[in-house]
């Protein structure tokens, strides 16, 4: 076979129509005894491994490796799939958020405590110095001092039993307020009447007078010097002459207030003639609520 014939046969074998071919060659080289060399005999064979046409890489129907459940990911992708969204950045944001919330709520708590402290100061600073030691006698003939005010809220009115109109009106108002407070809290508010007319307001006279108002109203009286000292401590003005006698006919000019005292015997507020029953009740309820927040009890 000539060299041209050999090249022609090789070209035909290379242009086989199957995409994947295996070239199998069998050749034998023989040398004639005469010493002349002979070209090897070459036989070409084509064998198809598959009759299926391979997919076109540019085709849109080729499978995405990420969508193939059998697709094997790299070790980094497997790690990310295991950890999920909890990346180092997310962990840092989580920690920072927690720290921020901690300081925020601690700051809010400090603000609340500071507000309560200021409320206590505001309720104490600027209060008039009303009240003090005294020793009087009740309408039952029993001793009564400032220590008997402790442990209860008190409403204290100064007047006299011969008062024609103002004293009864104020005592009626005070009694109505106490009734409303009793309904909501029980008997935590003690109503008290203190006479500013020692010459005529004896124990017996005071006992008859307080029965016309609230059943828990305590009436107090005493001698002139003791009542004057008590009125001075409570900043109450009265015009009873020191030498007045019970048979004398006179009127007593005095301050028209009843005082609101806390369970420690400290002054809270004063209610004048313009105050209504509702005003008294709401003011007492507000103070009781503040007291309960601070001390955990109503009295």
Automatic annotation (TrEMBL):
CC per GO annotation: mitochondrial inner membrane
Biased segments, Basic and acidic residues type: 115-124
Organism superkingdom: Eukaryota
Record-annotated membrane-spanning stretches: 85-105
Thioredoxin domain boundaries: 125-289
Gene Ontology MF term list: copper chaperone activity; copper ion binding
Compartments in which it is found: Mitochondrion inner membrane
Disulfide bonds: 163-167
Keywords of the record: Copper, Disulfide bond, Membrane, Metal-binding, Mitochondrion, Mitochondrion inner membrane, Transmembrane, Transmembrane helix
Composition skew (Low complexity), residue ranges: 50-65
Pfam families linked to this entry: SCO1-SenC
Signal peptide feature range: none
Chain segments carrying region Disordered: 49-79, 115-138
InterPro entries: SCO1/SenC (IPR003782), Synth_of_cyt-c-oxidase_Sco1/2 (IPR017276), Thioredoxin-like_sf (IPR036249), Thioredoxin_domain (IPR013766)
GO biological process, one term: mitochondrial respiratory chain complex IV assembly
Binding site residues for Cu cation: 163, 167, 254
Family: Belongs to the SCO1/2 family.
Database matches in PANTHER family: AT19154P, ELECTRON TRANSPORT PROTIN SCO1/SENC FAMILY MEMBER
Protein name, as recorded: SCO1 protein
Species of the source: Trametes coccinea (strain BRFM310)
């Amino acid at each position: 076979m000539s060299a041209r014939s050999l090249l022609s046969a090789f070209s035909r074998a290379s242009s086989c129509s199957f995409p994947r071919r295996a070239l199998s060659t069998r050749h034998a080289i023989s040398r004639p005894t005469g010493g002349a060399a002979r070209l090897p005999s070459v036989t070409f064979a084509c064998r198809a491994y598959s009759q299926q046409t391979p997919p076109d890489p540019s085709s849109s129907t080729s499978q995405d490796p990420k969508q193939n459940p059998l697709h094997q990911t790299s070790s980094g992708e497997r790690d990310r799939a295991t950890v999920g969204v909890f990346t180092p950045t997310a962990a840092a944001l989580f920690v920072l958020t927690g720290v921020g919330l901690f300081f925020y709520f601690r700051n809010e708590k400090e603000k609340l405590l500071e507000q309560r402290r200021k409320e206590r100061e505001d309720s104490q600073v600027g209060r008039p110095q009303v009240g003090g030691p005294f020793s009087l006698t009740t309408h039952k003939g029993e001793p009564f001092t400032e220590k008997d005010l402790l442990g209860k809220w008190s409403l204290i009115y100064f007047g006299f039993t011969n008062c024609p109109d103002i004293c009864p009106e104020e005592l009626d108002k005070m009694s109505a307020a106490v009734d409303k407070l009793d309904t909501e809290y029980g008997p935590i508010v003690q109503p008290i009447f203190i006479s500013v007319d020692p010459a005529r307001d004896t124990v017996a006279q005071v006992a008859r007078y307080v029965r016309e108002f609230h059943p828990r109203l305590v009436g107090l009286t005493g001698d002139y010097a003791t009542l004057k000292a008590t009125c001075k401590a409570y900043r109450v003005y009265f015009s009873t002459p020191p030498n007045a006698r019970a048979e004398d006919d006179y009127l007593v000019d005095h301050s028209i207030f009843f005082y609101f005292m806390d369970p420690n015997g400290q002054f809270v507020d004063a209610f004048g003639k313009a105050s209504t029953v509702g005003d008294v009740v709401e003011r007492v309820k507000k103070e009781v609520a503040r007291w309960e927040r601070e001390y955990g009890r109503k009295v």
